[in-house]
Amino acid sequence: MRAPRCLGDKLRDRLRLEMYLTTFEDKMPSPKPKSLASARKLRRYTHPSTHCASLSLDKSSAERCVTGGMDYGSTETAAVGPTQRALWRRNTSALTPNRRQLLGGVASMLFVGAMPLSISGNTGQRRVRRLDPDWPLPHSWDTLRAKVGGRLVPVVSPFNVCAENSTGPTCEQLMQSIRNPFFIGDHPALTQASGWADGWHSTPSVYAVLAESSDDIAAAVDFARDNHLRLVVKGGGHSYQGTSSAPDSLLVWTRRMQRIELHDAFQPRGCLGTGPRPAVSIGAGALWLQAYDAVTTKAGRYVQGGGCTTVGVAGLIQSGGFGSFSKRYGLAAASLLEAEVVTADGQVRIVNACQDPELFWALKGGGGGTFGIISRVTIATHDLPERIGAVFGKVTATTRESFRRLIAAFIRFYSTKLFNHHWGETVRFQPDNTFEVNMLFQGLDHQTAKDVWDPFRKWLEANGDTLTVAQPFEVISLPARHLWDKDWLALNAPSLIISDDRVGAPSGNFSWAGDAGQVGQFIYGYSSSWLPSSLLKPDKQADLVDAIDRASRHWPFSWHFNKGLAGADEDAVRASRDTAINPLALDAFALAITGAEGPSAYSGRHENVADVSEARRQATRLNAAMQEMRYVLPVAGSYVSESDYFEVDWQDRFWGSNYQRLLKVKQEYDPDGLFFVYHGVGSEGWSDDGFEQKKN
Questions:
Q1: What is the rounded radius of gyration, in angstroms, for the C-alpha atoms of the chain?
Q2: Does an H or E element contain 217, and which?
Q3: Burial of 689: CB neighbours in 10 Å, binned 0-12, 13-18, 19+
């Protein structure tokens, strides 16, 4: 029972104290505490990790006590451990007061003449933290646990074992495990990035609902709303901005929702005027590797998704979603046909272009965890090209002037030969005058791809006296159906992949070797800007060369051609235009990205504290590099998923002219701001941590 919120602050606080003392009368010392905070400190119930530490248990029993006997990685529902079951029963039974005593106490409070009733002014909402008096009592959590089939568990950091013995074998094994992105993704307490210097640190929620259905999600949403809790959503856990991590929160963890179903002819519900098309329905907890395995490796179709194998499907779509071949197939969000989503009122909705069309539009690039919690998406699939391939090469100029000539030559070459739907991925510019190519192509055979690059190779040969080739330019290709086929890659290109080496891990799990440095990274700084196609015009290329030259003096940066849709297939651009992403992306030939990171710095890793001074130094340099690029941009825009945590004008940078429309959707479907993410739509009305609503 809660004290009514219509009461004045002092009366409400006193009422809460009396209710609490009545509830725990047999557990309070004499004299009784005079404040609710003091009373709570004296109460016998504590968070499971604290209580279990006080028990005389062997190591195995202690771990089961803390975790409730739950195997986080299991796809089956584990039983709650007997020790914790007894603990919860004991404390829950103590929460049932004598009804007459409780009502009598409330009545006496309401009729105390010395304390007149008053209505509090509008001071803004405040979400409840774990140590606050309003934090839900154990019997409330038990009610939620029952609604979700026992799949409510306390979230315990795996690094607790290192606090006990940082040099022991268990801690040493953990240090090895956090280099595996699948291990990180399969634990509710961890995120793929461990934090951002001066920004955020990966911090476990207090409890997690291990959701297996939309009903589980709805129960968690209702509980968080009714109890004024900070709600966090995590699928893949790849947010650079830390949006899938928050202390004192309830986590909705969708990892178990991984069902994938192929459709030969999918018809969105209620959309009788549109023809059916091939599609795939994917649970919110699935990773893109799983989607590619089902759609491409096994079925011979293509689905537009992310490049990193461990990125979550639902999260990528909600940010817009670029993949290696976006210039051919458009945004991942552009292929979204339908979604099942739980909104702030607890309703499970099927949304598409015909049902809740504005909410559907907002989910296509308006940011994850903002408008609701997706439980399932259905995405159009596409014809698979026969072959895909890559071009690799690296060259270093001997002088800064020869580096400028090299840049100019590549820009001319790109604008005439590569500025089309066949080519994607990156080139990189470095302070030591090095230029590196890592590009992918689709829809071309091996010889045609080699012929495309002949003019640039000949230019390099003609200017060899001022250039050093560190890696000869090489073109490779393979059947497109094998791009995510682990068995084929392990046999034919083993250096490109890293297998998930955990005992019992799915045999198809692998990550790209080139992504290894991102696993568990602690971000020092990061920034992105879309580069308009107008910069490729002959009269603008000199300005672009100058900007690259100046920027590369500060810090390395890359151009991601697949993350700009200028030059893309016309149908892909048309479909992507009907998404919520910043319209600047539609006319950008590339996204410029620069970043810096250090080793993982998860809470509890005592031997690895982030070097904040070094982080700030590197962040200053990379921001200077991006600023040089922005000097030549008529308007600056950034991709929300790959952006600066400290972006000031984030509404305009992330969504541009779409922001006001997104804000209206937010106000309609989540007027009280239950779904909060840092720098998400509507978040300007809240403190940076999402706990305090700003006063009007």
A1: 27
A2: helix 214-226
A3: middle
Q: Is 79's pLDDT higher than 50?
A: no
- Report how far residue 629's alpha carbon sits from residue 636's, in angstroms, rounded to the nearest whole number: 10
The answer to whether residue 107 scores a pLDDT higher than 60 is: no
643 closest CA partner among 456, 300, 367: 367
Residues in contact with 111: Cβ distance below 8 Å, sequence separation at least 6, in sequence order: none
What does the chain come to in residues? 696
State yes or no: pLDDT of 76 exceeds 80: no
Whose tokens are 């541009």? That residue is: 656
Catalogue the E-assigned strands of 72-218.
152-154, 195-196, 200-201, 207-210
User: Is the preceding omega at residue 494 within 30 degrees of 0, hence cis?
Assistant: no
381-438, pLDDT tens digit by residue? 999 999 999 999 999 999 999 999 999 999 999 999 999 999 999 999 999 999 999 9
Fill in the DSSP letter of residue 302: E
- Residue 66 predicted with pLDDT over 80: no
Angle, CA of 579, 213 and 74, to the nearest 5°: 115
Burial of 478 (0-12, 13-18, 19+ CB in 10 A): middle
Residue 253's closest CA among 306, 201, 309, 186? Answer: 186
Q: Is 261 helix (H, G, I), strand (E, B) or coil?
A: strand
Exposed e or buried b per residue across 23-54, where buried means at least 16 C-beta atoms within 10 angstroms of its C-beta: bbeeebeeeebeebeebbeebebeebbebbee
Q: Of the candidates 385, 278, 256, 259, which has an alpha carbon nearest to the alpha carbon of residue 337?
A: 278
558/312 Cα distance (integer angstroms): 24
Share of the chain above pLDDT 70, in %: 81
| Type of residue at 315 | G
Phi/psi of residue 465, nearest 5 degrees:
-70, -15
Please state, rounded to an integer, the average pLDDT across all residues of the chain. 86
Residue 682, phi-psi category: left (phi > 0), alpha (psi -120 to 50), beta (remainder): left
- Summarised one tens digit per residue, pLDDT across range 16-31 is 555 445 444 444 445 5
Q: Nearest-CA neighbor of 549 among 393, 410, 415, 391?
A: 410
* Residue 537 predicted with pLDDT over 90: yes
Exposure string of 126-139, with b = 16+ CB inside 10 Å and e = fewer, is: ebbbeeeebbbbbe
How far is residue 211's CA from residue 231's CA, in Å, rounded to a whole number? Answer: 14
Q: Are 193 and 521 in contact (CB under 8 A)?
A: yes
> pLDDT for 145-190, tens place per residue?
999 999 999 999 999 888 888 888 998 899 899 999 999 999 999 9
C-alpha to C-alpha distances, 190 to 171, 187, 246, 248, 557, nearest whole angstrom: 16, 6, 11, 15, 28
pLDDT value at 453 more than 60 = yes
Distance CA 592, CA 554 (A): 14
pLDDT at 12 over 90: no
From residue 450, alpha-carbon distances to 89, 457, 476, 477, 478 in Å are 70, 10, 9, 10, 14
Q: How far apart are CA 121 and CA 9, in angstroms?
A: 10
Return phi, psi of residue 386, to 5°: -65, -40
Q: Identify the pLDDT of residue 605.
A: 57
Q: How far apart are CA 12 and CA 2, in angstroms?
A: 10
Indicate the pTM of the whole model.
0.84
Rounded Cα distance between 146 and 559, Å, is: 50
Structure tokens of 285? 């907890």
Residues of the chain by 3-state class (helix, strand, coil), percent to 5: 40, 20, 40
